[in-house]
Write a structure and sequence with these properties.
Length: 142
């Protein structure tokens, strides 16, 4: 096998997440890999505990539609085809692991100042222990 086949990147909507997205696109281009996006939406965490492929079916729920629009704006400048775009909330480790399985990803890219790692100090450890692919963590400025 030469390089990664399917890269999954977790993003939120913070401005410094462009760095994570840019690195994921660069890695996907270098490997000629599929690229999928997981949008971690902590605002919806108390409302939902599941994963949505936001662009593969119609969403009728207002919070989900708002999150979809925000994500579309962020991804409008991505200069690489996106395989899947997934919105998750709820148990982050469980949902990210499920997204990795859904995409059959062999590399997960996350940001280090991401809410994913700040929300609970054990989330990063749980992710490392439970993820079934390589993990690349991009340090972000505070």
């Amino acid at each position: 096998m030469s390089g990664y086949q399917h890269i999954l990147v977790t993003i939120d909507l913070s401005p410094n997440y462009q760095k994570v997205l840019d690195k994921a696109v660069a890695r996907a281009k270098a490997n000629q890999a599929k690229l999928s996006i997981v949008h971690v939406n902590l605002k919806m965490q108390s409302l939902y505990n599941q994963m949505y492929e936001v662009f593969t079916h119609e969403l009728e729920d207002k919070p989900l539609l708002a999150a979809k629009r925000e994500l579309e704006q962020m991804l409008a400048s991505v200069d690489y085809p996106l395989e899947k775009q997934i919105l998750i909330s709820g148990d982050l480790v469980e949902q990210i692991c499920e997204a990795v399985r859904l995409c059959d990803a062999d590399l997960l890219i996350c940001g280090h100042e991401h809410h994913l790692f700040r929300q609970n100090s054990s989330v990063a450890h749980q992710l490392i222990e439970n993820i079934n692919c390589d993990l690349l963590v991009i340090p972000l400025e505070k």
